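Appendix B, Record 12. Input sequence as logged:
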Amino acid sequence: MAGLGEQERLERRAEARKRTQQRRRAALGGLVAAAVLTGVVIAVAAGGGRSAPRTSPHVAGTTGAGGRGRAAGAAHAPTPATVVHLGAIPPSQPGTAHVYTHGSTAGRTVALTFDDGFCASCVARIVDVLLRTGAHATFFPNGRYSASWDPQAAKIRTLVERGQLIVGNHTFHHVDAPVVGAAAFSTDLQENERWIERTFGLTGRPFLRPPYGAYDSGTLSAAGADGYTHVVMWSGTVADSSLRTIPYILHAIRHWARPGAIILMHGNYPPTSIALPQILALLRRMRLRPVTIGELLGGSPYRAAR
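Logged structural output:
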């Protein structure tokens, strides 16, 4: 939003929050309708996916530091090398927050990341697909949607212990960091960290995804002081903060999936979770391997087994 006046930036953010709240109310009150739509979508996808979007999905523009650098969909039991020891939660280590929009392009890896999670059945389905396939991913949940996440806590911990999953912080109330300011942002970030620790028995540090992809120098400084040194943006998105069809989502994956890509998705509407097995199969055909954000960027707080 370079070049915009301060008032215009605030107005745009307020409008974005209003649209997001409207979508959430519609989702929570209309999951039955979404399920009906999803059935139609699956039929379309099976028929060849002819309703894919004509234009490329939106990708957030951002500046910041560049990232460092089993076949998806194939079921397997975790090997000893993939098992991690969680143990005691390490204390916060303040540092400098760096912004990442992608990882190294040296390997054929991509990071699938899931935000929010206000659809309980969607979160459950994503977790079960990861358990069944052995695929790796990253969750950025909000504690305000604990009704979706709490029932999956044991399974999520199993995925983390297998080395398949990283859990990062997305704030508790999904706050717009520059709007609320650094102090309030830090308070909300710490509230979500306490929820992550209490629910899953692990830390979200050092990975943070700021809601709306919004940050400024003050909120980056606050994040670093709280131990969130990896501010994870994205290089591509399936644009599913609104309800999308499965063909649209698959088209977006084909468009954005490249070595080192960080792909933004959400646990908010059924089509994304239903499409996940097809996404993993598509990545496999593209010779791309899904990894956690810790594997893509480094900085994982979990200690690998010897």
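Residues 6-304 form a domain with the TIM Barrel fold (CATH 3.20.20.370).
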